[in-house]
Structure formats: structure tokens, C-alpha cells
Amino acid sequence: MSSVTPSGLPIPEKVAVIGAGMVGLATAWFLQERGVEVTVMERDAVAAGSSWGNAGWLTPGIATPLPEPAVLKYGLRAVLSPSSPVYVPPSVRPSFLRFVTGFTRHSTVKAWKQAMGALVPINDMSLASFDLLGAGGVAAETHEAKSFTAAYRTEEERVTLLEEFEHIRASGGDITFDVLTGDEARAIEPVLSQSIGAALVLHGQRYINPGVYVEALSDSVVGRGGKLLTGTGSAVTGLRDTGTGVVVETETGGTEEFDQVVIATGAWLGALARQFGVKRVVQAGRGYSFSVAVEDLPHGPVYFPEARVACTPVEDRLRVAGMMEFRQPEAPLDQRRIRAIVESARSLLKGADLDHRQDEWVGSRPCTADGLPLIGATRSQRVFVAGGHGMWGITLGPVTGRLLAEQMVTGRAPEQLRPFNPLR
Questions:
Q1: Which of 73, 174, 293, 315 has its CB surrounded by the most CB atoms within 10 Å?
Q2: Which residues make beta-bridge pairs with 240?
Q3: Whole-prediction pTM
Q4: Which residues of 168-188 are buried (b: 16+ CB within 10 A; e: fewer)?
Q5: Nearest Cα residue to 265 out of 24, 75, 89
Q6: Closest CA to 117 of 372, 401, 398, 413
Q7: Residue 26 C-alpha from the chain's centroid
Q8: Rounded to whole angstroms, how far apart are CA atoms 352 and 348?
Q9: Which fold has domain 14-420?
């Protein structure tokens, strides 16, 4: 390393990013913008974790903390049911019990408002960060959501989200929307069934095909000279701070030294980060999805908040996603969860062929107990983490990479990242 930052830390020239999802690749891309040579290491494939099959929403207007008072209304009996939108299977793992205890403690109005205030500054930068990627040559579209519809059976059900919107505005969030009847919503989106009696339409949101987008981001990183190493041989098993750099050890016994390392391994973040003082549990909050043919493809995302079912037009089909299942990330896809989404969506969608599904998928969102991501330096000045975004890793991935790259190269944490200190 040939020079130092104003804070006296060496400027990195060669960085390894562990994890090739949206967050890791965006961090690599923005490091390249600052002249850093990057190597991305991924034990599986690009977008293999929670990036590929999620709903693909770019919705800073509703990127809210996952622990919320509404979660507690399900009650113990509900969350232990495999058909519940929020499923918490019994477990005696200490880390899991610690996560559930912390999650419950943060599911209060006061804690939610505090966390929302922390998210607003990066939410506000999120779409502009996608625009920077596009201007820099990432060859994938972000689609304007001509309509983004949150649909309900009754006006009473809608009150919770309207109250949440007011809290978002009170925290400084930028959100505009229209309040519609069921008939008004159906006139915009005929895919809504006659069961829908009330709706909200959000403005200024976008969406993507996440798998296609993350692949394009990977292509851009490689096209700009970055290295991409994937597959079992690139699985990182250990990190060692030597005092002048970080040695990365892989499953095959190989080692390579880098100036700095970014751990962006999603639900597996704790395995490598714990030795560097990151004690927060990152729990897999598994989500499921599949795609179906529909008679009327919507103009943008459709959300059923009461059922926690998210629908997105992806090419010529509708991706239907849902569930928050707190389990081990490696657990196999559970068909009971797919069936629960199908039965929830059946009465809400019109003209959807839910019995002929394609692309059934499960992915592990990395969730923290306080609903805030972990972004920044660890106890080692050379090891950084970026993860724990819960449901918002796609929306907040680029802005995370942009701000973390700034911190790594300047030696100073941007103000927007202070609430997300991994050592908190």
C-alpha cells in the first residue's frame, strides 16, 4: 500500500469481497470506482443466496425495520404454525433463542421508530445508487413501478400500513401514495380479485428481475478487471489479520493475502465475522417464491400485507413470494410453505394459474434482531462486513456498497452508516 488516508490508515489497493450477492458485488463495483483491485469469492454461484428468487422490489418508501409491533399480534400459537406468514419453529440453539428474544424486544413502537430513523438516510440514497450503477455500465434495467399496489380485503386492515406511513414521514422518509377503493384498484390492476375492498398505491418506487440484475452487476465487475472466483474451491474457511494485510484461506487449502476483506456472506455472515468482534446474531429469515402465468400481468408490484405475499411481474410471468421462516439457511425447501403462500394468494388474485408453478425457490434473508444491517469495520481495521439487511438487501445493496467503499478508501465512516456499526 503506497499511501494513507487523512485518518492515517493505508489506502487499500487490493481487496477481497466474500459473497457474490447484490451486497457483495455492489461493494466490489464501488471499490473499483475508487481505483481498488477487487477479487470476489463465492462458494456457490452469483446470486445463489437470497438474491435470485426474491421479489426484486426497489422500494425505499417502505424499506422498514423487520421487528415491528404487528409481528407480535400473531402470538405464540400462530408463529409455531407452518402455515403462518411468520414461522418460528421450536429450537434450543442458543444463538436462535438470543435472536428471537432480541427480535421480540425490538418489536415495539418506540424501537421501530428509532430504527426507522436510522434507515431513512440510506433509503433516500438507494435509487440514486442504482442510477450510478446504470450510468457506469451495468447492463440491466430498473423498471419504474407504474403502480405499486398494497391491497386489502377491508379498510380496517389498511389502517396499520397507513399508520406506518405516517411514522415513516415523521422520521423524514419520502413517501407519497393514493388511497383507493377495491374497485378503483381493480381498474388499475385487474389481477386483483373481488375480495379486495381497499388499497394503497405508492409512487416513486421501482423493481427489477433480481437474478438478471445481479448477473449483470457481476459481468460489469469482471468487465472492469475484477476477478470472480466461484464454486467449492472458492469457499472461504478462514481469515487471518497479519498486521499488514488479511490472509484468506479457502476450502482447498489455498491462501492469498489482501490489503482488506469484506465479508458479505448474507445469512452465513457470523461464521467469519465473529472472530473479529461481530457478536450480533445474523439469523436466516427464509423466504419462498415461485412464478405463475396470469391473465393480466400487473403494471408493477402487488403486495398483500395481511397475508405477507409479494407479487412482481418478471418477464411474462408473475413471481409470487412470501413467508418469513426463521430456520437454518441450509434446510431444504419445505413444500408446506409453498402451499401456504398458494392458499393465501388464491382468493386475492384473479386469473393466476397457481396450480401450475415454475421456479419454486427458497432463499435465506440475513436478519438482525434490531432490524438494522451490519455495515462497516470490525475490530480489525482491515476486515469489514456488509450484511443483515433482512428483506431489503436488494433495495439497499448498492447504497451499502457505495458508502462502505467510501469508508474503506477514506478511512472515515459516512454519517449514514453510523447506526449500522457491526460492533454495536
A1: 293
A2: 247
A3: 0.95
A4: beebebebebeebebeebbeb
A5: 24
A6: 372
A7: 13
A8: 10
A9: FAD/NAD(P)-binding domain (3.50.50)
Cell numbers placing 319: 413471481
**E strands of 187-235, at which residues?**
198-202, 206-207, 227-230
The alpha carbon of residue 75 and the mean position of all alpha carbons in its chain are separated, in whole angstroms, by 25
Q: Could you give the angle at the alpha carbon of 238 between the alpha carbons of 232 and 240, nearest 5°?
A: 145
Of 372, 45, 85, 380, the C-alpha closest to 243 is 380
Are the beta carbons of 202 and 176 closer than 8 angstroms?
yes
DSSP assignment, residue 20?
A: -
User: CA dist 74 to 46, 80, 140, 272, 391, Å?
Assistant: 36, 10, 39, 34, 19
Per-residue pLDDT of the chain (424 residues; tens, 9 = 90+): 457 876 677 899 999 999 999 999 999 999 999 999 999 999 999 999 899 999 999 999 999 999 988 766 655 455 657 777 777 777 768 898 899 899 989 999 999 999 999 999 999 999 999 999 999 999 999 999 999 999 999 999 999 999 999 999 999 998 999 999 999 999 999 999 999 999 999 999 999 999 999 999 999 999 999 999 999 899 999 999 999 999 999 999 999 999 999 999 999 999 999 999 999 999 999 999 999 999 999 999 999 999 999 999 999 999 999 999 998 999 999 999 999 999 999 999 999 999 999 999 999 999 999 999 999 999 999 999 999 999 999 999 999 999 999 999 999 999 999 999 999 9
Helices (H), 320-417: 335-346, 393-410
DSSP H or E stretch at residue 71: helix 69-72
Furthest-apart CA atoms within the chain: distance in Å: 66
Alpha-carbon gap, residue 53 to 362, rounded angstroms: 7
Classified as helix, coil or strand, 77 is: helix
- For the chain, how many helices (H) and strands (E)? 11, 21
| Angstrom distance (rounded) from CA 21 to CA 393 | 9
State how far the Cα of 388 lies from the Cα of 370, in Å rounded to an integer: 10
Sign of CA dihedral 289, 63, 304, 78: positive
